[in-house]
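Ticket #4471: structure export looks truncated?
Reporter: QA, pipeline team
Priority: medium

Steps to reproduce: submit the single chain below to the structure queue and open the exported record.
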Amino acid sequence: MFLHILLIQLAFSNSSALQDSDRPNIFASLSNMSVDWVGYGYATLVASGGVIGYLKAGSVPSLGAGLLFGGLAGFGAYQISNDPNDIWVSLATSGALSAVMGKRFYGSRKFMPAGLMAGASLLMVGKLSLALLQKPSEA
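Actual output as written to the record:
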């Protein structure tokens, strides 16, 4: 234990010889990162919709699909937060959900839950399509 404390003190005493400009700024990359709050909110909506479907109707497929697509949407939001040009997982997830839930809404004409999920998914597809169109072309 004493040896660990001694090594830590030596490491910090040697690092004080470095000037502030020589030290790496570990928070610089975090401050440049923009969090995709809309994507995380969408992922939460999808996952909670599956959980609510299971709690209200006992639907295990609803729970499975909600958690699967909510997890994929959350992963897509994480990717967009790290690289704003990496929208493909989010676009595929929201596109698939808008098609499936849109078909269910068209057949049932019930807003809950199919209409809500189809509408939210279409909004996500629109948001991601705009991001794709605004991306500068790489030459």
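Status: closed, not a bug. The export was complete when the record was re-opened. Leaving a note from the reviewer for reference: Residues 26-31 have pLDDT under 50 and may be disordered.
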